[in-house]
Amino acid sequence: AVRRATGIPLSVHLMLTHPDRFVKRFAEAGAHYLLIHVEAECDVMATLKEIRSLNVIPGITLNPGTPADRAFPFLDAVDEVLCMPVPPGYGGQDFIADVLPKIRRIRDEAAKRGKTGMDIMVDGGIDLKTAPLCAREGANAYVAGTSLYRAADMAADIRRIREAVAASLVA
């Protein structure tokens, strides 16, 4: 339904135990990116390769307690890593700052492999305070939900978050 309503690229985060059972359907539905969890109960590498074979961009996701090095075996197979600073499941949770060094470790490892343009996204607890912290560690994409839905002026808050991220990159 979303694909019919917009032409923008759609990023789909499959928070599923067995994402391998669904990647083809999401690709056919028009996903541009498909991200699966490193913690999934499937052959993660084979699933990432299947996603790529469907002409969809694969990505890997890590839960807050999962160490950065769990993503390393998959970095050459993905174009994006999603670090979650909240447990998956519902919005409005507090940002877990322990994820910040994880972002830096992933950014550094990607750079070592020549993947300096790899997207590192952060989803959960993103607001005016946390987005710049993530940017300083190497994140370059953010999902802000609750903080924006609660904003009196969503467009103004988006602008402020973008400005804060840009300022933290220059500093």
What's the total count of β strands? 6
Shape: globular
What does the average pLDDT come to? Answer: 92
Quote the beta fraction: 15-25%
Low-confidence stretches: none
C-alpha end-to-end distance: 42 Å
Characterize the largest beta sheet: strand count, sense, and whether it forms a barrel. Answer: 6 strands, parallel
Structural class: alpha/beta
Number of helices: 7
Helix content: 25-40%
| Sequence of strands across the biggest β-sheet | 1-2-3-4-5-6
Q: How big is the Rg?
A: 16 Å
- H and E string: HEHEHEEHEHEHH
Descriptive report:
By secondary structure, the protein is of the alpha/beta class. Helices cover 37% and strands 16% of the residues. The chain contains seven helices and six strands. The chain has helices spanning 2-5, 23-29, 44-53, 99-112, 130-137, 146-149, 154-170; strands spanning 11-14, 33-37, 57-62, 80-83, 119-123, 141-143. Strands 1-2-3-4-5-6 form a six-stranded parallel β-sheet. The radius of gyration is 16 Å and the shape is globular.
Outline of the structure:
The protein is an alpha/beta fold. The protein has helices spanning 2-5, 23-29, 44-53, 99-112, 130-137, 146-149, 154-170, and strands at residues 11-14, 33-37, 57-62, 80-83, 119-123, 141-143.
